[in-house]
Amino acid sequence: MLPDWGIASEGHDPMVNFFVNYAFAALYLFILFFSPSVKIRHLVKQADYLFLFLVMGLISCFSLNRDLPIFQKSVEWLQVVLLVVSLAMMAYPLRKSLPYLLRQVLLLLLGAGLVLFTYFALYLLPFYLVGTIGAIALGIGLHIFIPACTVVLLFLALGRECRKDPSLKIGVITGMAIPIITAVVFLVMWQDGKNSIQKLLNEQQISQTQDLPRWVSLSQNLSANPIHERLIKTDLVYQAVADEFAPFQFPEKNFDELMRHDPLVILATRLLGKPNLETNERVKILESMYDARHHAQERLWSGDHLGTSNVITQAQIFPEYRLSYTEKTLTVDNHKPGSWGQEEGIYTFYLPEGSVVTSLSLWINGIEEKGYLTTQSKADTAYKTIVGVEARDPSVVHWQEGNTVSVRIFPVLPQSSRRFKIGVTSPLRQEGNELIYENIYFDGPSVQGASETIALRVENGTANLNVPASFESKQPGHYTRYSSYEQDWSVSLPVTPLSAQGFTFGGFSYQLQPHAPVLEPFQATEVYLDVNAAWTEHEWDTVWPLLKDKTVYVYANEMTRLTEANRDQLFSLLQQQTFSLFPLHHIKNPAQALVISKGTGTSPNFKDIKDSRFSANFSKTAQNRFAVRYFNIGHQLSPYGKTLRELKLLQYTQGTLSDLNQLLTKSQFPAALQDPNAVQLAESGLKIVRTVADKEIPANGPDHLMRLFAYNHLLQQIGPKYFEKEYLETHLIDEAAQANVVSPLSSLVVLEQQEDMSASGLRKARTAWATPA
């Protein structure tokens, strides 16, 4: 345990921990050999002493496995079983003083241990020859035989106990039966899951429409349960039996999740085999089904020993502008023992809708270095060249679909840490008479044990925040909290009147204005129901009567007209899909169409399916298509839906079934914002308007008005061009550079040396707090 706590390994050679444990076991064995009261040749009679030695030997084995891994870290249930069985072996010498019932429990645990260590002994069988040769080197190779020795001693000791008292056989047999029955049940479920996967793959193969890759169909229709997860994660997270003569194979390294050793998976892959899926398909399925996109990011270096030790959140809240600016300063540590093995930290930040990253800093030699803005491709090339080839200090932040960004930091050296900072400008969400500030959370190196300091400041101090009880305020408008890291928290404050102040820069003024949705006449001639697992039967039965007088379609491999006769059958079929990718390009008359959907938490992104026929067909029609009116039941959107909304390909609104009924009854729908010099911040009920600079307009507002406008304006102009990858136009790049915002076409990168910046064609970043002109 000590290495996990950062005690035993710090500043020492990695093998020191093993030799300490090995020395204890060897010393104890030495004492046994030369003790006059112990005769090792009588194995069963000396079981009391030998069980203690074998427990010490197992500790030494697992300690050695940390540095010379024969198998990966045990899954949680295996850790618990090993601990409990080891305690039972330690308690064996006390068996005569235990009540009868506890003796039965003790033998039950040892019976289970007999089966478990039989597995380990067979697992290590191919290594016995190597272990025999390795025994010459200080006896280290003998560790291979510890499980086999444990099996022998358990078998003899349990047999002796059962001969003395035959009634104890109940405990032994029950203990052996439990893991065997568990394994059989798991094997049956494994085969059933494997058959389900193959059936779905075959159905996709014979389907008349194969617009999407087969992994999409599998992700949509495969239920998310622990067996299916292990089937998909085999070779990625869970060790599996190799095809050649070896007991195992190491998981692929293109999925950044902790590698695990699960005896049940090993057994299943040995006896029943693995699903017929390629590695990249498994990764895509995990991204889509289990929201594992962060783990699937491309890595240039390992990050296995990294952890996040400290988080500092500093936020400025501007109530009269309905926006905030947040800086997250993170410290990432490398806990790898020794002095060799630099690693790469990768983080994914989840941003509130409409938010934009406006700054990036990396501390180099104790000095904060600001980010430089460039195109996304130049930043990526510079980072890969310096990290992958020259192995020097950069950091980069890239825009990702679905309101996320990724941040990379390199290098993080063993027994050292790196510090970086990311700045995010966000609109405040309005709910009734309150404004909501949401914490910006992230995925990345483990935050277990991380501390966090939060400092919130309300500009002008005119409004009081409604904060959790753990916050304290020592002066008006300032709130702080120091605690362990928490991901989910938010604060609220009353809605205040909008400021008349704007921000002026580059000959333009940027000003906030209220934006109440304007309802326009709209009579849908065709309605498309985008059905998935998020829909409830109540919602389905409520929506259908509202649409009886309209032509209604669902997409079930092809557009299908919905009728009273087939609606229940189609709903039952479509509700099994964990997510949906509704093909907007199949809508024949988008100007008169209405899509009614309900969002799921997961789905593929467009970049995941960029090489598919679905993407090609979507791209062909996207340029000339009318933005489809889209009603979302509730507030959740899938990553697919978020991207469509950000790129203004949807005339979007959301609400309850009652809101939908009202719109349909009155034949109305919220109108789209048509002004090319205005962007809508839907969650805030506002719009930012850009006008030619006018001295009459007060210009003391924050520069974040320009940054939010630029980001949303860029997405608005990119729109359907995003799918053709022909949106790298000079005027768009200039707009991103002027506002210093991370977008689909621009990234921020920090490089250590000036020549790196010049060679990469990077430009100096603007400060996140530009002085108003």
The CATH class of the largest domain is Mainly Beta
Q: What is the number of helical segments per DSSP (H or I, 4+ residues)?
A: 20
- Proportion of beta-strand residues: 15-25%
Question: How many structural domains are formed by the residues?
Answer: 4
Oligomer kind: single chain
Question: Taking strands numbered 1, 2, ... along the chain, how are they ordered across the largest sheet?
Answer: 5-4-9-2-1-13-15-14
Distance between the first and last residues' Cα? 59 Å
Helix content: 25-40%
* Largest sheet features: 8 strands, mixed
CATH architecture of the largest domain: Sandwich
Question: What do the pLDDT scores average to?
Answer: 86
Shape: globular
Sheet/helix structural class: alpha+beta
Please give the structural blueprint.
Blueprint lengths: L15 H19 L12 H21 L8 H16 L8 H24 L4 H7 L11 H19 L4 H38 L7 H8 L4 H8 L29 H9 L7 H12 L15 E13 L4 E12 L8 E8 L5 E9 L2 E4 L1 E4 H15 L3 E7 L3 E9 L4 E11 L1 E3 L2 E5 L2 E3 L7 E8 L13 E4 L2 E7 L5 E5 L8 E3 L2 E7 L4 E3 L4 E5 L6 H10 L4 E5 L3 E3 L5 H8 L18 E5 L15 H10 L5 E6 L5 H8 L3 E6 L1 H10 L1 E3 L7 E4 L4 E7 L11 H15 L11 H10 L6 E6 L2 H7 L2 E2 L9
Parallel strand pairs: 1-13, 20-21, 20-23, 23-24, 24-25
Antiparallel strand pairs: 1-2, 2-9, 3-8, 3-12, 4-5, 4-9, 6-29, 6-30, 7-8, 7-29, 10-11, 11-16, 13-15, 14-15, 17-18, 18-28, 19-26, 21-22, 27-28
Organism: Nibribacter koreensis
InterPro entries: Sorted_by_XrtN, VIT
Protein name: VIT domain-containing protein
